[in-house]
Amino acid sequence: MVRSTRIVAAALTAVVVATSGCVTGHLLDVGRRREYVASVREAWVDGDRLVIGYDARVTDDNGRTLGRTPRWVVVPLAEVATPATMQPEPLRSWDRSGRPVAVWDGTGTPPAPPLLRVTPTGDGDLLLAYEEPADPATLYASALTQVWTTPWVYLLVPFTLAFDLVTTPPLVAMAPALLVMGE
Amino acid sequence: MGRLTRRDPGAVRVATLVVLVAACAAACVARAPERRPRPFDFASDSFAFANETLLEFHVADDGSERWTERDPRPAFSLRCAPVTRAVRQFFLEARFAPDAPPLDDEGYRALARAVLARSPRDQEPSADPVVIPGYPNLRSFSAAREVMLKQEISSSWRIFFQRANWRLIFPFTPSNQEATAEELRRDVEAGRTPIVRVHRYPSFAMNHALLLYGVEDAPVGLRFRAYDPNDADAPVTFEYDRVARTFTFPKRVYFGGGPVKVYEMYHGPFY
User: Fold this and answer.
1) Nearest 5 degrees, angle CA B160-CA B164-CA B167?
2) What is the pTM of this model?
3) Are A32 and A149 in contact, with CB atoms under 8 Å apart?
């Protein structure tokens, strides 16, 4: 009985050390995705909204590129100049209704307004300037970044939570030793 | 008092409570006002030497990344947290007196030991700093006394058990990072110099410590300026992206660049 208890305790300790802490937290980290604007394809003005079609670079939580995907986003024209408070609304698709806006990367002859000027900032970001005949409004493409979690992760959460219920208490029990010994 | 206790024990409890509250209030009032540190100056408040990395990061022409071990193995490595901690201790706990007569080796060793013996969790300048004569600042002191300071920084076995390590096992959610960024911004704007761990745990691609001393608004977030113990020549800047809700660290000789997790260490009893 004592021997089997020791074996269970040793196995539990090994599992605790091997799993590096809260498995549910690590699972959610693994499933987290970020989509950054990689390039702008097209843009439309629909009433008081600017609709931007772009290719997104999809990354995992550590920034590793997993692929590219086409995306659309709607930005109220009144908010284009205030990226900090802007509330871009992702769209699954766009039927290309409204008024087309030329997308210009700064090379060659500029098209007539309205146009969306796309300029690399040098910091890996893109500066988007929506130019009507007057008062160009600009926004950083990083303001359009989307963060989401892959759905399959949630299927595993009940299992990882159960696992954490067993493995986390020993970790917490070890913490005081670190607090006492630690610098 | 005895009569009071017999007649109205509740009154005694209230009186005791009032006395305690009054004592606490008096203690708070009597407490020295918060001492705001002078601004941290990288050129004079940092070490002239760096913590060296065991690994070096390489990007091949095809974009692939790999690590190589340094050969020969550096003698002063794996000390990023103790070096960062020591920089803040000298910043807050020491005062340099360039015009005072210099000491011998053992005298300076004793002073360095006295500085490093102070609490690494202090956040304000000491009212009773250790006076280090003969040098104008930490940069010149550490240039002249490099070997001794490296020995003193490495002398304790406890440096390998940083108290805040426990925090790594719990998740760092985007909302946690958002709160961390705002808290760090407030601290730095208040003149404090928080020490942070920058990591990708459970991956060990990044596990580093920095001292923050500057912050400014970036287009979509915040830009922090920090002392990097691995680089004695220049500070490093890294950003918090408010939309992606993540910190992003630039490419360095020891890191390929990209998102990282951040939390503060060397503050409070649990970190």
Assistant:
1) 125
2) 0.81
3) yes
- Counting Cα atoms < 13 Å in the Cβ hemisphere of B151 gives 11
Say which residue, A145 or B3, is predicted with more confidence. A145
ipTM reported for the complex, 2 dp: 0.78
For residue A54, the surrounding DSSP H or E stretch is: strand A49-59
The answer to whether the CB of B267 falls within 8 A of the CB of B198 is no
Interchain contact A33–B (C-beta under 8 A): no
CB contact under 8 A, A22 and B169: yes
Q: Which domains does chain B show, CATH number per domain?
A: 1-31 (no CATH), 42-160 (no CATH), 163-265 (3.90.70)
Hey, which residues does A50 pair with through a beta bridge? Answer: A45, A75
- The distance from CA A4 to its chain's CA centroid, rounded to whole angstroms, is 47
Res B143: pLDDT: 95
> Average pLDDT for residues A61-65, to the nearest whole number?
90
Mean pLDDT calculated for residue range A162-166: 91
H-state helical runs in chain A: 2-19, 23-31, 152-181
Chain B contact set for A29 (CB, 8 A): 171-172
> Would you call A122 an interface residue with chain B, using a CB distance cutoff of 8 Å?
no
